[in-house]
Amino acid sequence: MNLDTRQRAMLEEMGIRVFRPESPLGLMDDAPPSPPRGGEAAWAAAAAPVARPGAGLATPVRIAAPALARAQAGEIAGMDWDTLEQAVASCQACGLCKSRKNTVFGVGNRQARWLIVGEAPGENEDLQGEPFVGQAGVLLDNMLKALGLSRAGEGAQAAYIANVLKCRPPGNRNPQPEEVLQCEPYLRRQVALLQPQVILALGRFAAQSLLQHSVPDVATIPLGRLRGQVHHYEGVPVVVSYHPAYLLRTPQDKAKAWADLCLARGLMQAAPAA
Q: Is 165 helix (H, G, I), strand (E, B) or coil?
């Protein structure tokens, strides 16, 4: 990939050394990395989220939808952007409505070709009502800038950012299956309205939520095994990568995240012009 001075600077801010080899391979080898020492157990450890006080073991998110959830999904499927945002703001479908300060609907250009999907709002997101703020947001913005994208961009430089959950779980604990279930129709409708050409799923719960109907037993597959290949959600290509919060704690995996961005950019470059 040919990078200009600004993009190289952004990569350096991400902690990725920018080489200038004579080889046409560019910054780094984009091939999927080999498993680290320790085999499958090491993959699982690398993909697991940082432990939080009071957080238990991850629970698969694929559960049967009750009749109420199906009925709500039918209503949500016909909403426009403004109505959908209002529905999220007033949602009381699960217990998260009792502890939230703000719902976190999403941010960015509603005609963007890129959709970035995270997991759940944290404390800063809950306070500001916007996804990916704080240090993780700064890193994500730098990752996007390295590709010439931003949440405030227009046209080919535009990106839209959303989360699987629209409310913060107390204490930043892991999302619970019923919470993911109740929020799924909101994200599904955002995808339908946006009609992105590529989705970047950041983190294990984002990957599980988006791929639960297309990848068998996805909840048992380490995040590292979902990387390096193209999945699909509602017909849209999906690339899985690490969550920026994980990368802040594990900076040695930033190079793998850059390879994921390159894969997503390749899909975008190959897509027909909108």
A: coil
DSSP 229: S
The 8 Å CB, 24+ separation contacts for 267-270 are 267/197, 267/198, 267/230, 267/237, 267/239, 268/113, 268/114, 268/197, 268/198
Structure tokens at 221: 């597959």
Asked if 159 and 268 count as a contact pair (C-beta separation under 8 A), the reply is no
Crossing angle (nearest 10°) for helices 67-76 and 177-194: 20
| C-beta of residue 130 within 8 angstroms of C-beta of residue 104 | yes
Angle at 266 between CA 263 and CA 268, to 5 degrees: 115
> How does pLDDT run across 227-238, given as a tens digit for each residue?
999 999 999 999
- Where residue 83 falls (left for φ over 0; alpha for ψ -120 to 50; beta otherwise) is alpha
Give CA–CA dist 76/83, Å, rounded.
9
Give the SS3 label for residue 174.
Answer: coil
Token duo for residue 201: 């799923």
CATH number of 70-270: 3.40.470.10
Q: Give residues with Cβ within 8 angstroms of 159, minimum separation 6.
A: 108, 109, 112, 114, 115, 116, 144, 149, 150, 151, 153
Model pTM score: 0.77
What are 22-62's pLDDT values in tens digits? 333 222 222 233 333 333 333 333 334 434 333 333 444 44
Collapsed DSSP state (helix, strand, coil) of residue 150: strand
